[in-house]
């Protein structure tokens, strides 16, 4: 039986279950046998109290109540930090393949739907007392629920690591060429992005991942958010500095000589449908996923309540909505149809200290963020296998195997849009749409007072399923059509 919202914790703690069935009381309501007839009201009251007490015991088994210490403002910062990621680099590409109006509609829709999914997740946490996503899944659906949530969160984190290492693969060669004083078309094996990403992984990231705990690396997430804010400022500034179609943007001489073609290329479009439009929604969904971090942030919130955490969620998503839209619109209005799935890569760092600075800042930020995500995936894997006791041999072996697999994927995946597409239609869809609504429907299935909310949650679940059924085939179709061809970088 789920908890009733109006029942205080202190009332539950003071509530006791009668050990002796033959309870006597001055009131006839609490006489078990009255004139040879069983008093049904007594049984009802007794069973109700036993049910509530048992429910409280189950809640305590899931997570002990520990008061939070984080302020509302800092919680907003932490959740904003959890939302912000490499997805911001692909939003201008999504806009270029949907048009301004359609992109804005999708961005608003995903923002509101994400806020609603957080609401469902918070209700589930309140009803069960679970503050860990995997524990919540296990509490509601048993071991299959725990495995599904583990798979979804791990795939999301692996997708984020892939996108971060893809940034290293794309951006580090350009930064090194600039520092060497070489042209952008300079080519040697030591400026090959594939070699550089492997070198960075096993020279910097591997030693950090082998540490027993992260410690100070937890603070690098704040630096990462600062880098993305700096990136947004540069994108806005460059919009007014770079003219559309200039030679530095790789525009061909034929386009420059043809004024009508040039005018068409530099004219904003409001609604677009093409083969790449299918990547827009997964990319936006990928950019807004923060659900694995919601419950830990909720548990740390001072004087926490569902209403207070919902306020944190609303403020964080609104801030990220503004930041995402500004990055996408100014990036698009700088390069128009020539924008790439990695917006940062479009800016040439030749003789531009500002671009070099933001490029190096983002590279350092993502390099230091990868171990944080890696620790989460590895810890979840050990938890799932029930191998929580530290073992050095297993620790090193699993770390090496996972990093090798991730590097192979980074080397052979052609573009970031493929990462955003795959993760967006799989784990992001599960975490935003399917899992919160499924958990909510299961928990409230016996609560007739929440019929209206269950209808909305059912529609939300149906939307997530429809999103998968439509997006996954379209992404596969685009792969088949485009073959192994990749964007030129």
From TrEMBL:
Pfam families: Aa_trans. It comes from the Eukaryota. Signal peptide: none annotated. Keywords: Membrane, Transmembrane, Transmembrane helix. It is a multi-pass membrane protein. Residues 69-473 form the Amino acid transporter transmembrane domain. One of its GO terms (cellular component) is plasma membrane. The chain crosses the membrane at residues 76-96, 102-125, 146-167, 187-209, 216-237, 278-299, 311-333, 353-375, 396-413, 419-443, 455-477. It is found in: Membrane. GO terms for molecular function: L-glutamine transmembrane transporter activity. This is Sodium-coupled neutral amino acid transporter 1. It comes from Dryobates pubescens. The lineage of its organism: Eukaryota, Metazoa, Chordata, Craniata, Vertebrata.
């Amino acid at each position: 039986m789920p908890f009733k919202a109006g029942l205080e914790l202190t009332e539950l703690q003071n509530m006791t279950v009668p050990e002796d069935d033959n309870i006597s009381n001055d009131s006839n309501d609490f006489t078990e046998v009255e004139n040879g007839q069983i008093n049904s009201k007594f049984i009802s009251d007794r069973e109700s109290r036993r049910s509530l007490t048992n429910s409280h015991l189950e809640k305590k088994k899931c997570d002990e109540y520990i008061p939070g210490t984080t302020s509302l403002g800092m919680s907003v910062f932490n959740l904003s930090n959890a939302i912000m990621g490499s997805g911001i680099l692909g939003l201008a590409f999504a806009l270029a393949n949907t048009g301004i109006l359609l992109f804005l509609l999708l961005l608003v829709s995903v923002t509101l739907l994400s806020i609603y999914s957080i609401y469902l997740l918070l209700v589930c946490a309140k009803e069960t007392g679970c503050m860990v996503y995997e524990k919540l899944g296990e509490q509601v659906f048993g071991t299959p629920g725990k495995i599904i949530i583990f798979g979804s969160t791990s795939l999301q984190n692996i997708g984020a690591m892939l996108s971060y290492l893809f940034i290293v693969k794309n951006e580090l060669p350009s930064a090194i060429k600039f520092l060497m004083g070489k042209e952008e078309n300079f080519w040697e094996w030591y400026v090959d992005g594939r070699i550089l990403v492997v070198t960075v992984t096993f020279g910097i990231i591997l030693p950090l991942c082998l540490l027993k705990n992260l410690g100070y690396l937890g603070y690098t997430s704040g630096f990462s958010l600062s880098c993305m804010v700096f990136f947004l400022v540069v994108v806005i500034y460059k919009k007014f500095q770079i003219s559309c179609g200039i030679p530095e943007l790789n525009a061909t001489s034929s386009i420059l000589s043809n004024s009508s073609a040039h005018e068409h290329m530099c004219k904003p479009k409001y609604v677009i449908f093409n083969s790449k439009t299918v990547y827009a929604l997964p990319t936006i969904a990928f950019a807004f996923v923060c659900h694995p971090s919601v419950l830990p942030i909720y548990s740390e919130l001072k004087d926490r309540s569902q209403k207070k955490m919902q306020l944190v969620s609303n403020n964080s998503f609104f801030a990220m909505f503004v930041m995402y839209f500004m990055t996408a619109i100014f990036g698009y209005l700088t390069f128009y149809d020539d924008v790439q799935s990695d917006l940062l890569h479009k800016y040439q760092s030749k003789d531009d200290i500002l671009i070099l600075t933001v490029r190096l800042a983002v590279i350092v930020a993502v390099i230091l963020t990868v171990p944080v995500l890696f620790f989460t995936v590895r810890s979840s894997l050990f938890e799932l296998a029930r191998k929580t006791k530290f073992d050095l041999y297993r620790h090193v072996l699993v770390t090496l195997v996972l990093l090798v697999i991730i590097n192979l994927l980074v080397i052979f995946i052609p573009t970031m849009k493929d990462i955003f597409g795959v993760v967006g239609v799989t784990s992001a869809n599960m975490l935003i749409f399917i899992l919160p609504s499924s958990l909510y429907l299961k928990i409230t299935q016996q609560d007739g007072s929440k019929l209206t909310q269950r209808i909305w949650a059912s529609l939300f679940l149906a939307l997530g399923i429809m999103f998968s059924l439509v997006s996954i085939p379209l992404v596969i179709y685009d792969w088949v059509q485009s073959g192994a061809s990749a964007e030129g970088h």
